[in-house]
Design a protein that fits this description.
Layout: H1 2-25, E1 29-30, H2 40-44, E2 50-54, H3 60-68, E3 73-78, H4 81-94, E4 99-103, H5 106-112, E5 119-125, H6 143-152, E6 153-163, H7 166-177, E7 182-184, H8 201-208, E8 214-220, E9 238-242, H9 247-253, E10 257-261, E11 264-273, E12 278-286, E13 289-299, E14 306-311, H10 321-335, E15 342-347
The structure holds S-adenosylmethionine.
The site of S-adenosylmethionine (SAM) has 21 residues, from strand 3 and helix 8.
Length: 350
């Protein structure tokens, strides 16, 4: 018994050591910290055609893509940390130099990381497993996201989609048929089987539970795509203003509030008193990116009652349109507390 305990402890220690060494080799990549657009040749150490898999899950299909395309660089996108860790270990263990995985929502990567006409293949296996037609706004296959995918594909690039939900297949079929930049490469609107495909974990589960799978194969033609430039980060926003109120008075008046501008939403959560001013917790939700960050209100220089509002470096947020809206909204709210508030200087996107 004692021997068994020791050996299982040793086994665990070995597993942890192996996992740590794998983690040490593979640098974690995140859409929120990579340059916009990303420099793929630098990340891979070589310029090669780019293949993208969205929502790779266990990574079975990523490995298949790497084996099928040794001439390409393969990029996997996931939002699940567990899936990312598993794939990072697989990359380190198997020395897959032409595979990298990125912690990112598909939308964030498509709009911020990839330049137009750069992808040679896009694979989407079993997205949105809880799909219901009336929950349309959060699904991957929708006009805006498909336009972004099409814009990032080169002429001749392939798009593969698989689903086990008949309604999802019907909705995707309508969407794809209404995309003049894509040509259906199958005799019917979808196929029940694709020769040479590896079976993913979700696909095996769907089949075991008796659901049919539907596969789409489309190819990008040379018709120009909607113009969707890479969304880059903006300059750091700030406002310098004068207010008769002290930081403690501003803090005492604070209640959580929201601000909206177009399709951008900013929520203000809590305010904290620091040594040198106030820290406001914010959530900036934009169609392509979601950031939890903080704004700082600090005394400006040594002049009494002059303050600066700027972005805190906590969490390394990116200065996007939503962050600019947040800085402006905080200033507007403070200005609403006292008519004697005046702006001295500001750097904000229009
Ligand atoms: C149903 S699973 C399919 C996984 C895998 N492709 C397979 O066939 O086994 C969907 C996967 O997509 C990921 N996912 C969901 N929404 C995503 C998004 N917006 N961007 C990137 N990945 C996403 C989930 O974390 C999950 O791993």
């Amino acid at each position: 018994m004692a021997i068994q305990v020791v050996s299982s402890l040793e086994h665990n220690a070995l597993r942890i050591r192996a996992a740590r060494s794998a983690d040490a080799v593979i640098q974690k990549l995140n859409a929120l910290s990579l340059p916009w657009p990303a420099n793929w040749a630098e990340i891979f150490g070589a310029e090669r055609p780019l293949i993208l898999e969205i929502g790779f899950g266990t990574g079975v299909f990523l490995r298949h893509l790497v084996r099928q395309h040794p001439e390409a660089n393969v990029i996997g996108l996931e939002i699940s940390n567990q899936c990312l860790l598993k794939a990072e270990r697989m990359i380190a263990r198997e020395g897959l130099n032409n595979l990298r995985v990125i912690h990112s929502r598909a939308e964030t990567a498509l709009y911020h990381l990839f330049e137009p006409s750069t992808l040679s293949e896009v694979v989407i296996n079993f997205p949105d497993p809880w799909f219901k037609r009336d929950h349309g706004h959060r699904r991957l296959m929708q006009r805006d996201t498909l336009d972004a995918i099409v814009s990032r594909m080169q002429a001749g690039a392939m798009l593969y989609l698989a689903t086990d939900i008949v309604e999802y297949a019907e909705m995707s079929s309508e969407l794809l048929a209404a995309t003049p930049q894509l040509m259906n490469r199958l005799p019917g609107q979808w196929a029940d089987m694709l020769p040479g495909r590896v079976v993913t974990k979700y696909e095996a589960k769907a089949r075991a539970e008796g659901r049919d799978c539907m596969y789409f194969v489309y190819q990008r033609n040379a018709i120009p795509a909607p113009v969707i430039p890479v969304i880059k980060e903006l300059a750091m926003p700030h406002i310098v203003f004068q207010s008769p109120l002290s930081p403690d008075e501003i803090r005492a008046a604070f209640r959580p509030f929201d601000a909206h501008e177009g399709d951008i939403y900013v929520g203000f959560g809590e305010v904290y008193r620091g040594r040198n001013g106030l820290l406001f917790e914010i959530h900036a939700a934009e169609p392509t990116i979601d950031q939890h960050a903080a704004l700082l209100l600090t005394p400006h220089g040594h002049t009494a009652n002059e303050y600066t509002i700027q972005l805190s470096t906590i969490g390394h947020p990116r200065p996007t349109q939503g962050i600019h809206i947040a800085v402006n909204a905080l200033h507007q709210w403070i200005a609403g507390l006292s008519e004697a508030t005046t702006v001295i200087q500001k750097k904000l996107a229009e």
